[in-house]
Amino acid sequence: MASYDRYVSPLSERYASKEMQYIFSPEKKFRTWRRLWIALAEAEHELGLGITQEQIDELKEHKDDINFEEAKAREKVVRHDVMSHVYAYGLQCPKAKGIIHLGATSCYVGDNTDIIIMTEALQLVRKKLICVLDELAKFADRYKDQPTLAFTHFQPAQPTTVGKRATLWMMELKLDLDDLDYVLGSLRLLGSKGTTGTQASFLELFNGDHGKCRKIDQMIAEKMGFPGCYPVSGQTYSRKNDSRVLSVLAGIAQSAHKFSNDIRLLQHLKEVEEPFEKNQIGSSAMAYKRNPMRSERMASLANYVMSDLMNPMLVASTQWFERTLDDSANKRLSVPEGFLAIDGILDLYLNVVDGLVVYPKVIEKHMMAELPFMATENIMMDCVKLGGDRQELHERIRELSMEAGKNVKEKGLDNNLLELIAADPAFHVTLDQLKSNMDPKKYVGCAPKQVEEFLEEVIRPILNENRGDLGVKAEINV
């Protein structure tokens, strides 16, 4: 039965997928602790310590059936989460009880698990990022030839195409993917470094054999699917790694926020619209409204992720010497919730792009209202070819443009610049000849070609390399 008498995080209740929530769940964490204890016991066994295969087999037999209640009850007594789970595991594995966690500190399971979980979470983020790029690529290709007004300073500028604008969103996500891959490829485990990072306990266990101290870290890393461990550390891995990871998430949030801004502005212009459910209510008072709530939610969550980056930065910068514990409470909040929020953002991004509605007639109407101004240079060049004076024509076009602009802004009339030019004897041109310059496709430059080349040279190689990650369906609560 649902409980309504306590706070529940909206990130888990409303925004993040079940898959991302599981990665940061207690079950995932404590299962990973047990895998790490097994890897440690196996490595110690292989390096000659008195740990038997029977003990290791017993540990493996109970690696997934975690006795949470026993651990919880024990923690109330000893006030230590790791030792409580060592105790609970020992209840299930009486033969292996005495060798669980041998030589290790709490950070052996805590920090290694954090790296493993962040790695898996980044892999899920990467998968969703690829899927967003795939949907944007389809959209860009579909609308690569659709002229639309471009804006600088949100003022009408030279035309572009709807597809070309989509490549701008994609380019930013491509940069985010580059950053993600770099950080993901550089993550390493802490290994088993001991209380201050010197591996003193393991040097004692291995009777002064430094070579075995080096080997145990590499063996643990390989058993856990990592290429290696950080070569040096204090008791913990450097908290700078958390800020590097959150920086990647904040970068994706920046890109998503920019996209959501553009969609909200385009929806205001009625040129593009995010998906709107058949029975969706836009406003409790204004029944006609179709609010861009998905894009607004993206922006809201993106603000949270960008501000969340400050948490690991503050933690990393204020650690003392080999470790302090003022990172713990902050890490429990900032890292999981940063991932849960970016997961929700990418699901929204995927959902919006998959259902974007484009209104070509509205786009064309806005384009044609501004195109006479943009065509003036071509008109001037054509008239010079017919014998006109470039400087005189430039001045006349400037004056007529001001007049046409005044008619639009002050009188609410349509743009009549072409009629004004046709009526001016300085131009020696008819209205029909001027209208022949009013094909928007003449003014989009290389935009369609740029879309084709960008998709072919930059995006499709990424999609082809990651075919197995495509097809993710967004989980969103509308």
TrEMBL record:
GO terms for cellular component: cytosol. Keywords: Amino-acid biosynthesis, Lyase, Purine biosynthesis. It is an enzyme of class 4 (lyase). GO terms for biological process: 'de novo' AMP biosynthetic process; 'de novo' IMP biosynthetic process; amino acid biosynthetic process. InterPro entries: AdenyloSucc_lyase_C (IPR019468), Fumarate_lyase_CS (IPR020557), Fumarate_lyase_fam (IPR000362), Fumarate_lyase_N (IPR022761), L-Aspartase-like (IPR008948), Pur_lyase (IPR004769). Pfam families: ADSL_C (PF10397), Lyase_1 (PF00206). PANTHER family: ADENYLOSUCCINATE LYASE. Belongs to the lyase 1 family. Adenylosuccinate lyase subfamily. This is Adenylosuccinate lyase.
